[in-house]
Amino acid sequence: MVLRQAAVALPLQLAALREYNRSYNPQVEYLFVENSSTDDTPGIIDNHLKENSGYYVKLGPSNEIEAMPRISRIAKARNHAKTLAANFDFDLAVVIDADIYFDAETINRLVMFSFGNNSLYHCGFGVAALINHETAGISIRTANHYYDTATFLHNDNSKSIWPKCCFTKCLTCNASDLTTPRLPSEGGIIEVAAAFGGIAVIHAKIIHDKRIFWDPLSIGGSPLNEHLGLLCKMKELFKANVTIDLDAKVFWNLDTLNLN
User: Fold this and answer.
1) At the topology level of CATH, where does 2-253 sit?
2) For the whole model, what pTM was predicted?
3) Out of 101, 181, 214, 232, which residue is the most buried by the measure of CB atoms under 10 Å away?
């Protein structure tokens, strides 16, 4: 995980991951790359690693890093984590954003599909929501709006429709405004050219391949986004699409995110 100021969501994320470990007994190593948090994030990581195997790397503070544009700074942190992870022998890496909410079953769905289908890059379906921080209860599911539109590309020839999404059950985005075909909001697996959605399960050969890295790009009208560089290089080298499990819901908290 790449983290900064993550003290609100991180305890609930780690609780879900510990529940996944208890329920399914995988072999897991945690990797945290933390960048200059001034909240309780470092202490939460330290406490977690007292009873769970893993590594904690502090990327900052650094004037050079702080001077970078936000997306370049995130890309640097992700690539630092990738370089560290490439030193280890593993099957899958689960990349998790620091401001999302999920449960143990969501992780299991994504991991089992990736194992069973030899998937290179498989991700959850990230929708906007309002979250109860203490219970992780989903109080409002905000019309099934797919939040991470900056990363999303429908197919190889499509233009970004950011900040809109093209999923059928989204009542926030007007279908008459969209030139991209509508996609289902639930019911299985779909393939797209690019997506992230808050959680991605990535095959070890992508992490170990030095030709592939997070690289800020803007494609087809999308804003600058670090995932697009990695996904475009993966597509070039392996001819592989991104898959999304529409039933593996991941929730982005609207208390801290702007839907517009």
Assistant:
1) Spore Coat Polysaccharide Biosynthesis Protein SpsA; Chain A (3.90.550)
2) 0.91
3) 214
